[in-house]
Structure to design on (227 residues):
């Protein structure tokens, strides 16, 4: 190869090298962004699950429930430190002092779900995929509200009309697409809590009945993120 040929090809080679480096750098940045969004979504799921449990435990008055609330607060500490929306953390700090505040928990969960939806949209934009995570999280929240309200209803001598109306609405909403375990749980709820008269099921039993169903759904969402 002549010196003139080398001089001609050298700029072309440098151009190709530069384009390759830029392409690899862009690919690495894309991967970092996707990984960061996935990690934040996982954190969001952890907080969603934890705040829902705290709401359910806050509807119980037993010593074990109080202790589990305290353990849950410590367990969620690292996730809250990583969470970018500090206003959510301030609300969570208030709820630690008032674990029985059902509506306060619901408001925080709605804000968490809004943040999860925003993070998912950004991730879907990178991956060019359709969003599914936030919708499934809202479905989990319906089940979480059912758990929290039913625990509070079961703690009373008779399910109050206001709670009965809310529980019946959630029952019917969830019953539409219920799988077999959820269908069986809803049937038990209908027979032992929504009927007239004294509840035939205890708050601790309701927590044990519904919590595995919620946890399995959240685990399924985690698998959507590859974890």
């Amino acid at each position: 190869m002549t010196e003139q040929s080398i001089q001609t090809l050298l700029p072309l080679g440098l151009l190709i090298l530069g384009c390759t480096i830029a392409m690899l750098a862009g690919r690495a940045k894309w991967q970092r962004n996707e990984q960061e969004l996935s990690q934040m979504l996982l954190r969001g799921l952890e907080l969603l699950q934890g705040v829902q449990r705290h709401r359910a435990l806050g509807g119980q008055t037993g010593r074990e429930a109080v202790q589990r609330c305290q353990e849950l607060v410590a367990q969620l500490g690292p996730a809250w430190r990583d969470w970018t929306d500090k206003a959510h953390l301030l609300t969570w700090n208030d709820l630690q002092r008032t674990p029985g505040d059902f509506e306060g928990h619901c408001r925080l969960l709605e804000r968490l779900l809004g943040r999860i939806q925003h993070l998912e949209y950004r991730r879907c934009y990178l991956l060019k995929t359709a969003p599914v995570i936030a919708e499934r999280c809202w479905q989990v929240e319906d089940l979480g509200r059912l758990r929290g309200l039913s625990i509070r209803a079961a703690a009373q001598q008779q399910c109050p009309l206001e709670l009965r109306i809310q529980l019946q609405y959630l029952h019917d909403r969830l019953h539409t697409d219920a799988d077999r375990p959820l269908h069986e749980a809803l049937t038990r709820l209908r027979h032992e809590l929504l009927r007239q008269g004294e509840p035939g099921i205890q708050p601790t039993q309701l927590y044990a009945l519904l919590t595995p169903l919620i946890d399995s759904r959240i685990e399924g969402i985690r698998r959507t993120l590859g974890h």
Notes: Residues 7 and 187 are 81 Å apart (CA to CA). The mean pLDDT is 88. The radius of gyration is 25 Å. The chain has nine helices and no strands.
